[in-house]
Design goal:
seven-stranded mixed beta sheet, Dehydroquinate synthase-like, alpha domain, two-stranded antiparallel sheet, alpha/beta, 2 domains, binds nicotinamide-adenine-dinucleotide, 11 strands, 15 helices
């Protein structure tokens, strides 16, 4: 088992990475000072992860813990205040007190929802995050960002607009849970791993590119090598900037372009988050190329790594540069606001670029097929 500390002043936490960790859940909770073995837990799980949740329920009950199970639907519109209320009420019905714990088993949707419910129930109870998607293992379940979506006044879904920073007492990564994850979701998570390499670890980026076809098919030895290295990129940044005052924003590399296209219909249906990020990384690389922050070879190595992981690199659907720029919020820039774009500087570093020239943004969009 690998323990990766998350050194946030006043809120130290850890990520445990071990295949088969779920089977040893009670001993992992016991060994960690921040968790101990709670008397009662509200175990909230993604209904698509019932098999993993049942394993956790069985071992916790065998260890004498009183477990209340609560199944959730992992859909963006379930990241709502109404669902948080149902979690609070389930905790009240189970008589959870401040010494007890929530456990979240699922991907980023369940983790964000349950984390927010834990942050607010009795003004804050412990939450153990057990991520089951690659994206949540290397990103969402680490660093304590929790939250729900809200409908915007002008209509449309405003993502993660209400939430709290609430560090998990621990995060437990059991890569066996990836065995049931659909391959498309797995590959979507690889986009975030590539992003982590681009932000802070050139050798991680090269190794993902090298092992891409194994990783895209969940080859377990390759995945076991990848996970701790990708997690360390996130824990190190979060420890330096837990409240996203500056450096943590670098984790949004590829996301400004990506978010703008994520909810647009495409010729092949809806993009997954990581697929939109993959396309966003290609756009960011082209914008960085226009600013001479990456070479032509580096920009193509980024696109090639994404291709090897079977991720999309261009957008296929009805839209225009003007529409995407509006969705990026960059139309306001041209009215005097300060807009920020995270761009790679070579491979293994990135920078926050304020008010990038309009032509640079257009260059990024052209690279992903939007004119
Ligand atoms: N808090 C953060 O720092 C942070 C960071 C990135 C993303 N997010 C949030 O994470 C969410 C996306 O999370 P995600 O990509 O992890 O996916 P998800 O939670 O949307 O799950 C994706 C799909 O996979 C299914 N699934 C999950 N694990 C499975 C498993 N092991 N076996 C079978 N099916 C499984 C789910 O039921 C769902 O259908 C978004 O809401 C995003 O806003 C949060």
């Amino acid at each position: 088992m690998i323990e990766i500390p998350v050194d946030i002043p006043g809120q130290p936490s850890s990520v445990f990475v071990a295949r088969g960790a779920l089977e040893n859940l009670p001993s992992i909770l016991t060994m960690h000072a921040a968790t101990k073995l709670p008397r009662r837990v509200l175990l909230c799980f993604d209904r698509n992860c019932s098999v993993h949740a049942q394993q956790a329920v069985r071992v916790l009950r065998a260890a004498g813990v009183i477990v209340t199970e609560f199944g959730l639907l992992a859909a963006e519109d379930a990241k709502s205040a109404a669902v948080v209320e149902t979690i609070w009420d389930a905790a009240l019905a189970a008589r959870l007190d401040r010494g007890d714990s929530f456990i979240a088993i699922g991907g980023g949707i369940v983790g964000d929802l349950v984390g927010f419910a834990a942050a607010t129930y009795l003004r804050g109870v412990r939450v153990v995050q057990i991520p089951t998607t690659l994206l949540s293992m290397v990103d969402a379940a680490i660093g304590g960002k929790t939250g729900i979506n809200r409908t915007l006044p002008e209509g449309g879904l405003g993502k993660n607009l209400v939430g709290a920073f609430w560090q998990p007492s621990i995060t437990i990564v059991d890569a066996n849970t990836l065995r049931t994850l659909p391959k498309r979701e797995l590959r979507s998570g690889l986009a975030e791993c590539i992003k982590h390499g681009l932000i802070a670890d050139a050798s991680l980026f090269r190794d993902i590119a090298h092992d891409a076809s194994e990783l895209a098919n969940n080859h377990e030895p390759s995945m076991d090598r990848l996970l701790p290295r990708a997690i360390v990129v996130k824990t190190a940044i979060v420890a330096r900037d837990p409240l996203e005052r500056c450096e943590r924003a670098k984790l949004n590399l590829g996301h400004t372009f990506g978010h703008a296209i994520e909810t647009l219909p495409t010729d092949h249906g809806k993009l997954l988050h990581g697929e939109a990020v993959a396309i966003g990384l290609v756009a960011a690389a082209a914008a960085a190329r226009a600013l001479k922050m990456v070479s032509a070879e580096e920009a193509s190595s980024i696109a090639n790594a994404l291709a090897s992981c079977e991720l999309p690199r261009t957008f296929h659907g009805e839209t225009s540069a003007a529409e995407v720029i509006r969705r990026m919020g960059f139309d306001k820039k041209f009215e005097g606001g300060v807009m920020k774009l995270i761009l790679p500087r070579g491979i293994g570093a990135c920078e926050i670029v304020e008010n990038p020239p309009h032509e640079v943004v257009l260059e990024g969009l052209r690279a992903i097929g939007i004119a």
